[in-house]
Amino acid sequence: MRVLIFEPQHAGHNLAYVSRLCEGVQTLGCEVHLATSRQAAASEQFEQHLGARRNLRVLPLDGFHQRAGSGVIRVNGPKGVRSLHRGFWNALQEVKPDHVFVPFGNPISNWYGLPNRVSRYLKANQIETELVLLFGRYAYPLDGLRSRCKQRYALSMLQRGPWTKIHHILPHAVRVISSFSRQLQAKTNYLPDPVDPLPSIDRQQARQLIGVPADGRYITMMGLIEERKGVHQLLAAFRTALPNLQPNDRVLLAGKASEDVRLALSENYADLVASQRIIALDRHLDGQAFGASCCASNLICTPYPRHQYSASIVIQAAAAGLPVLGNAVGWIDETIRTYQLGTTCDTNDPACFAKQLSIAVNTSDDFTPAADIDQFVQRHSVDNFKTLLTARLRERLGVEAGNDSLLERRAAS
To answer: Mind listing the GO molecular function terms for this protein (predicted)?
Structure first.
């Protein structure tokens, strides 16, 4: 069977999702085509996640709308959506697939409920198409008539789209989508946000591997280090909290930094950088270095100021048995509280954040994971992700299902 994966973006977790999906599909003996942007195909993220994958037919496409001053594809706004639509259409005509996956479907999920040639083509040719959603207006409870009307519109567009299966990584979103209609209920599934296994190394070995000082306690932010992650709030809170911390406590920024963060480090925090109280691994980290950065830590910090949705770093911390200090909003707040993964506070309040940061660091050695933490981590394993996302494809191929976990159905019920 010829399978098309359409993913033009390479920022964030996009290509990591694609790599895991490719692995799951290729084990079924399918002919796998990846339609992506030429920028993504030339990126270091592509080399890390997909460079060594054999028998993957890559179709690099031109014409995607870019963010100004970067190679990142713009997926929102009229120009971004039009370029996605054009790229998707060209990929369908080139590959002529039997089955399609869209691993990051949010930018097109509403638009494809409107009349368009891609939806018509998919339906007319009975091409089963699976959509993965990471967020949406229906992801958390809404207040006010206007917000509820927008939610209803989004759900109606989702229902009218050409999707055979809809996968969402937020349990509440699955419940809301499923309650909208029997049609959506029949095609919507919960999909865990997958995290890779951590390297089997201790804290000192991890610090040696990534080249940071062996002493002190590390407060770590991981992934892309940028404004939307709350890095400026973290750095300010750390400076304020210094009198209540040990002399060798440090902040570790493990990941490639944006230009505004680099500027802040050089101008506002140069003293702390020089004394190695702030350490920036300002590069795209491969899987080993990323996992080692987690293992090197004493506290994981996720102060994302406006992020309502899943954060795989929280899951990674749970796998490492580390406490998390996160912002008290959305999925991060709910998950940390439910599974006793650490502490939440209003990280947009400088005084509150600084106080809770010092408390969290000073009590990090006393952290004990909850009894059911292994169950939570296993739910988000890569194997579970691949099993659930390829379930319909296996069914079409007549391949016996693997060990599909009941945990996912319970999580979304």
So the answer is: D-inositol-3-phosphate glycosyltransferase activity
Q: Does domain 203-366 have CATH number 3.40.50.2000?
A: yes
Per the CB < 8 A criterion, the answer to whether 394 and 401 are in contact is yes
- Angstrom distance (rounded) from CA 410 to CA 395: 21
CB 38 within 8 A of CB 10: no
DSSP 297: -
In this chain, the answer to whether the domains covering 2-194+381-411 and 203-366 adopt an identical fold is yes
Q: Which CATH superfamily is domain 2-194+381-411 in?
A: Glycogen Phosphorylase B; (3.40.50.2000)
Q: pLDDT tens digits, residue range 37-86?
A: 999 999 988 998 898 888 899 999 998 887 766 667 777 778 888 999 99
**What are the φ/ψ torsions at residue 283 (nearest 5 degrees)?**
-165, 165
In the chain, % helix, strand, coil (3-state, to 5) comes to 50, 15, 35
Q: For residue 356, give Cα distances in angstroms to 84, 156, 317, 343, 352.
A: 43, 42, 18, 8, 6
Number of H helices, E strands in the chain: 21, 13
Nearest to 220 by CA among 286, 300, 304: 300
Using DSSP bridges, classify how beta strands 165-168 and 56-61 pair: parallel, antiparallel or unpaired.
unpaired
Q: Supply φ then ψ for residue 113, to 5 degrees.
A: -85, -15
Identify which has the larger pLDDT, 364 or 309: 364
Distance CA 101, CA 385 (A): 14
pLDDT of residue 135: 86
Q: How far is CA 378 from the centre of its chain?
A: 17
Average pLDDT score over the chain: 92
Domain ranges of the chain: 2-194+381-411, 203-366
Structural tokens at position 319: 């796998």
Task: Please answer whether residues 30 and 4 qualify as being in contact, where contact means their C-beta atoms are separated by less than 8 angstroms.
Answer: no
401 has a pLDDT exceeding 70 = no
Say which DSSP state 66 is in.
B
Nearest Cα to Cα of residue 295 among 205, 194, 195: 205
Sequence-distant (6+) residues with CB within 8 A of 74 are 64, 65, 66, 67, 80, 83
Tell me the whole-structure pTM to 2 decimals. 0.87
